[in-house]
């Protein structure tokens, strides 16, 4: 089949998210200017540069108590820092709990029973037991077409790697099985890996 998004797809559910998969999940922790911590997962997330290391995530909807965006982006506008926590399979349920449409006053760490730790280079909390956390300073927020589509880019200023995930000097994803977002209500996890050398290597 072929369809133009502007004309609609004619299917029971939008297939777009099922096409662009799997997507890594950035579990974004932020702190508002009032000191309230926030934690929410975003599947429009990825690394975008090596030197200096940089990441991005996109927020694509709004909450009534945040006008044109959600808590994460609103907090980043105020403080210009955020932390990306990597989600392991074992944390799938608490990650999902933190995705709820809670009011801006709700601390998702407390609500979902997630242990937190302070970041080392920025004023923000992180998920203490995450396999990895990337502390970031905002470089820019870009507004995309659409009413509530914003992308935050950040330079990574600190990296936390959980000790049990570092094996023979390499970060081993099979030790924690990263969670990935698919389409609809579906997720997947990485349990097997294989290597391919580039031509000339």
UniProtKB/TrEMBL annotation:
GO molecular function, one term: oxidoreductase activity, acting on the CH-NH group of donors, NAD or NADP as acceptor
Domain of life, source organism: Bacteria
Domain Flavin reductase like: 18-173
Coiled coil: none
PANTHER family named in the record: BLR2425 PROTEIN, FLAVIN REDUCTASE LIKE DOMAIN-CONTAINING PROTEIN
Name assigned to this protein: Flavin reductase like domain protein
Organism annotation: Roseovarius aestuarii
């Amino acid at each position: 089949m072929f369809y133009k998004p502007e004309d609609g797809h004619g299917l029971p559910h939008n297939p777009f998210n099922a096409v662009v998969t799997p997507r890594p999940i950035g579990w974004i922790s932020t702190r508002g200017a009032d000191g309230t911590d926030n934690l929410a997962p975003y599947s429009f997330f990825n690394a975008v540069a090596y030197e200096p290391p940089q990441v991005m995530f996109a927020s694509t909807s709004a909450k009534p108590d945040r006008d044109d965006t959600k808590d994460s982006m609103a907090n980043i506008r105020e403080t210009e820092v955020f932390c990306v926590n990597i989600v392991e399979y074992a944390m799938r349920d608490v990650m999902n709990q933190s995705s709820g449409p809670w009011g801006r006053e709700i601390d998702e760490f407390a609500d979902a029973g997630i242990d937190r730790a302070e970041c080392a280079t920025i004023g923000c909390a992180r998920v203490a037991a995450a396999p990895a956390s990337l502390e970031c300073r905002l470089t820019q927020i870009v507004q995309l077409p659409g009413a509530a589509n914003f992308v935050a880019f950040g330079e990574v200023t600190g990296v936390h790697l959980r000790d049990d995930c570092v094996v023979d000097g390499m970060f081993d994803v099979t030790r924690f099985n990263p969670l990935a977002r698919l389409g609809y209500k579906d997720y997947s996890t990485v349990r097997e890996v294989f290597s391919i050398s580039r031509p000339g290597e």
